[in-house]
Amino acid sequence: MDEKQPKRGGEPRRITDLGTLKALGHPLRLRVYGTLRVSGPSTASQLASQVDEAVSLVSYHLRKLAEHGLIEEADVQSEDARERWWQAAQDNLSFRHEDFKDTPEGAATHAAVVRSLIAYRREQYETYLAQQEAWGAEWRIAADQSDFLARLNPAELKRLNAEIHALVKTYEEQGKAAEAAGDTEGRENVAVHLASFPFRL
Fold it and tell me: Could you say which residues form the signal peptide (predicted)?
């Protein structure tokens, strides 16, 4: 594995080796990694509280994620210098079927990790549905759950995805810039999930 991993805030990292994909694919590691992306630097004890697991178990999975450059040590955020702080090593990860299709193990691992991600995203949405009354009318009106049907060829689908990604990235950067300028009122974490795929009846 390349020793020079992109740092948080840099270019997205594309996972192409099976070991790293397996390391990420464990359901608890997905939750820990996702929590670090959202919450920022955290200790094992803080993460254990957020994912409702034992500190020793979370520490073990943090080490596994770190071995593959998925997370990295962060600057100490408290007065206790003995505490070990962790952060996601990059803002975005990607992995594609094409990089793992040549072996049965690779194809099976890729499919399993994608299914784990779908389950994790479904859990996020189910949590919102269970709590939506508490969010208030403004957030309920702003939130969306839609699906679309288009007749496209592969090139058009690829271009559509690229344009959607670029648009979401624009809003991500605008939000970061606004918060850096002190405009924090009313801002919350917002999950945008996209799945686009061909199908036949």
Answer: none
